[in-house]
Each structure stands twice: as structure tokens, then as C-alpha cells.
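<instruction>
Derive C-alpha cells from the sequence

<record> Sequence and C-alpha cells follow
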Amino acid sequence: MGMVVDGVWTTDELGPDFKGRDGRFLRSDSVFRDWVTPDGAPGPTGVGGLAAEADRYHLYVAVTCPWAHRALLVRRLKGLDDVIGLSVVAPRRSDEGWVFDAGDARYRDSLYGAAALHELYTRADARYTGRVTVPVLWDSRHETIVNNESSEIVRMFNDAFAAFSPESPDLYPEDKRAEIDALNERVYRTINNGVYRSGFARTQEAYEEAFDDVFATLDDLDERLATRRYLTGETLTEADWRLFPTLVRFDVAYYGAFKCNKRRLVDYANLWAYTRELYQLPGVAETVAPETYKRGYYSISELRNPTGIVPKGPEIDFSAPHGRERIGAGAA
């Protein structure tokens, strides 16, 4: 894992996420935090403020990355494929971090023809220091990064670009915001980031703490989904789409590679059926690539997988009937 230091890419095996604090994995904060809003007014943080326009913004993602996946999903669900451009890095990292593949049309930088994603970071800030992550929301007019925090990009796609997709669902309805926020906070801490806290822990205590968090929340969500079609009731919201990327990676990656092996997703009757239902919604399956996830998470790593051997299993059928049509009918 590498990073940019004062505008120059450098290799740093551990990177700045590892602080040496009781062996716990600490994720670095995103750095670029400007906002796109409907009219260019400042965003929720009171800073930034770029007007939503078609063909101005570009999204950079990686297929393997769950944080990028949530942004890709909401771009698709909000009907913004023709409004916001897209470039996908190659499904592997190199000594240059996330890279593009000029020989494969699927993995080219369609704006600048960059060889590596860190070139975009230093194009935005020539003296940038920090990690090079996806997703990235890019402003092609000012040639800079708007934002590289997935939760905020998701919120922008839902709110700022609403005029471009008036028939699409509101994923953050006002009457459910408190519930969505509470779910997001717990799911992020214990599941989305919890699997990484487990997989990258450097002490037994840190690992077991993260492991217990993961399965306590999965157990609670499985119980919740016994009577609710989706996390907040009968309507899909942002909370569902922030959970989904971790769920579709769980059995092929986190269960083995990150030692989250108390139970598989398929062992949870409600969570597993719920995941299949979301997968089968229009446009979602095209964003899911289990074999690519597996190759990514089991790639050679001196810390996690020194041999680089990728397991053949498991076989998972996300297209099997989910049977959730009657769950929670009439529930709030």
C-alpha cells in the first residue's frame, strides 16, 4: 500500500491507516470534502458549493472497493449514468496503487488517459499528501477533486442531482433521516469498517473486538429484517445501499481473508434473502463481481496472504428466488 507525500508517490507498506494504537486498524479521514449542490450553494458542511450540471462531473471507482461500490450503485439507481461520467481503475493494485489499463477499454481513464489514480490527486493538488482512494468525484471544469468521501458522494447523487432524475426514488427521505443516520453510523462502524478492523487487526484483542462487533450487528439486522422488507420499512433507502456492498463481499472475501468466520451470510435466513432481493433489482447485478472481489482480497500480501493463492469457492447464487415479497407488508 502506498501514498502520496508532498505530491510524490511513495511506497509505504502499511500506510497511514496503521497508527500502532493497541494493534487496531484506524481508517484515515477523506481529504477532499467540497460539495455539489442543486444551485451551487455551500453544502451541509458550510463550505464548497458547486452547481449540479450534466457532463461536468466524473466518478472514478474500483470494482473491488466496497466504498466505491456504494457510489456506483447510487449513480445507477438515480439514473445518472448519462449525467455523470465514469472511469474504472483496473481490478488490481500495483506498486503505483490503483492503476488504469490503457490496453483494456473497461479500465481506462477516459478524461486524461492517466496511468495511475494518484496522478489525478496530484493534478488536483500538486503538494498533496495522503492516501489515494476511490471513489473520487471529479470536476472536469475546474480539473480538481470535489470529494473522495463515499458517504458524501452518495448524498450528493441523491440530493444535488435530483432534478436530472425526477422519477428516481429519494434515498434519504426527510421523515426517515434520523433512523437512516443511526443505522448508517452503526453499520459503518461495526460492519462496513468492522470487517477491515477484523482483517487488519494486529493483536488478538483488537481482532476479537472487531469480530464481535461484526456479528453482533449482523445478528441484530437479521432479526430486524424478519419483520421489515428493508432496513427502515417498506422503502429502500441509502441505509440499504450502504450495507449491500459489504454483504455481497462477505462470503467470498471477508469470511476467509478477513477472518470473519463465525457465520457466513448464507447462514442468515433474512439477511441472505434480503441481499438476493437487492441484487435482483434492475441495474444492480451489473455492479456486482464476486470473482473479482475474491481475486482482489486474496491477492499476494505479506500480512494476509503471502502465497497469493485464491480459493476456488464458495459458489453463491445471488439470483435464487428471495421470497421477501410479503415481509413487513404494511409496516412503517
